[in-house]
Fold this protein.
Amino acid sequence: MTTGSRFAQNCAKCGACTTVCPVYRQTGREYHTGRGKLHLLSKLDPAEASATYAEILSHCLLCGACSQVCSRQLPVAELLAEARGELTRRAGRQVMLRALSGGLLSRPHLLKALAPMARRLKELRLPADSGLNLRLGLMPDQESAAAANQDNTSDTPATISSPAAQKPKITDHRVQSGVSEHGMPQVFSGCFATYIEPEITRSLLSLLTRTGPAPADTPSGQGCCGLAAYSCGQREQARRLARKNIAAYPGQNPIVVACASCAAHLRRYPELLADDPQWASRAENFAGRIREFSQLLSEQSPLSGSDAYRPLKQQVTDPGEQLPGSDEPATLKVLYHDPCHLRFGLQITRAPRQLLTGLPGLELLELPDGPQCCGHGGLFHLAHPESADGILQRVSEAARTLNPQVITTACTGCLLHWRQARRQGYHQARVVHLAVLLDRLTRGTGD
């Protein structure tokens, strides 16, 4: 009997997990709930799983909502991730595509080689049903391609930045050795911000430079955080990636992360390496230095508290654009989407909102029934596209009732899924990473 199955037997069968499970809300099937999966896990060995059993175990976002409400505090998501590692077969649709995606994430040299092609694809008007558009989700909105050409990296709409706005004058910190002065923050970019949309890293560096100590050089040895491997049950690959990242960040410098999913998984390194005497203490040290960027910024100098920042009207509207019948600048209506790894994993919900509400002329919107999962789930959207799309449609319908101009989030996976929703016509808002949005809205006229 595995450790996971012993934990599973402690499930009280109360059903609290059913009320918060996005997959269950979509499918209505009991075996897709945390309770249902734990029951199966207590009876059946994943190492001897049938195709049906493997399919059930894979049909989970690992969002952590069930763990959050469990009356017995069972780590349901962690138990399911462990069970996936014992599977002898792969499940879900597009197995080869998911395997390719996971393999690329663990091979930075391949990602680096393919990145120019991915960025070039952003400029093309691909059909709405293109497999690259709908499955890999690497491209931004077609309508913003012209604006993206300025940086060749971003989905940030031109209306969020004045045509006269210039890039902040900061040094490229993405290279060098990782040896730096004690206390200066270093940045962990992650795969997407490193290879596909570097503007996220540039914006984060700009924000850090303007609100606290200038960031130190970021080591070139960083790699994928390993979340995709962990979620697929490839524990050894996840451990290997963890060791690589720990070795890349020696010292005591804070490590600032702009992707919620990366930040949550980097904090999990002590768990991954707990039985490795050579790395356990280093993993503890590393995890203790991880800082999610919105929480760090909310603790530093206010973004909106200086006369050096550009007025919001000049940042978010074309010159002279105003609300009908008003001499006041238009209010920017922004919906912030809570990434599950931030909401349930790191339990950070206030900091992003504090940063946004501190900006003049910005109206922060909230979903009618509270935060919801977008359905991306790392590689879940590749394994179970119908369920992922159904969850995405549900949250998009809720967002559409608010008529936001911009949807922003702090997770690159969520960012991609919300962009996919716009391409499919589920909503009309622009979709921008939170770091990019904050940088564009607060960048001073002297930069």
Notes: Residues 91-106, 119-182, 305-329 have pLDDT under 50 and may be disordered. Residues 154 and 211 are 23 Å apart (CA to CA). Residues 100-149+162-295 form one domain. DSSP finds 25 helices and seven strands in the chain.
